[in-house]
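TASK: fixed-backbone design
INPUT:
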């Protein structure tokens, strides 16, 4: 048992920061990133013996997180526009905690298509390679490159619009 713990921690410690950045970016505004990290690590530890490649440990953790989030979204009830307004307003008031630029980036990311957002987070924030993302999502490398390109274009459009037309009440459409 101690050997399994040591092996798990030996693989996890070097990638902790990258995994934390992935979780923070992926769940921004939806839930606490620490909850996602804890659930993921618990499942990863329980299924650690099934890990085929120690080099793919970060991909392994990200795939577990993605599945947990997908299951969570399926179970959630639809959110009313009143709740969404409250949630957006509450998140906006917390800008000082995380910094205005990070808040703006996460808000913009939430308006990018899911597959593009997922690829951008995995590539730019988590640091996975295009090949690793392709394997994780079970698509071709060219599909990942296309998602990254389209996602960057969309982010640029959103962030440019935000900076040019920012008024206190205006939201990204």
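OUTPUT:
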């Amino acid at each position: 048992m101690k050997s399994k713990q040591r092996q798990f921690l030996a693989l996890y410690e070097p990638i902790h920061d990258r995994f934390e950045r992935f979780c923070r970016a992926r769940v921004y505004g939806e839930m606490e990133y620490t909850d996602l990290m804890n659930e993921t690590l618990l499942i990863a530890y329980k299924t650690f013996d099934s890990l085929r490649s120690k080099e793919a440990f970060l991909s392994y953790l990200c795939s577990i997180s993605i599945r947990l989030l997908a299951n969570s979204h399926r179970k959630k009830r639809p959110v009313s526009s009143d709740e969404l307004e409250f949630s957006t307003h509450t998140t906006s008031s917390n800008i000082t905690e995380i910094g205005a630029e990070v808040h703006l980036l996460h808000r913009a990311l939430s308006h990018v298509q899911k597959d593009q957002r997922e690829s951008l987070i995995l590539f730019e924030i988590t640091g996975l390679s295009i090949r690793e993302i392709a394997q994780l999502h079970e698509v071709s490398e060219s599909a990942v490159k296309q998602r990254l390109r389209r996602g960057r274009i969309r982010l640029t459009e959103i962030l440019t619009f935000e900076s040019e037309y920012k008024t206190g009440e205006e939201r990204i459409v």
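COMMENT: Confidence is low (pLDDT under 50) at residues 79-91.
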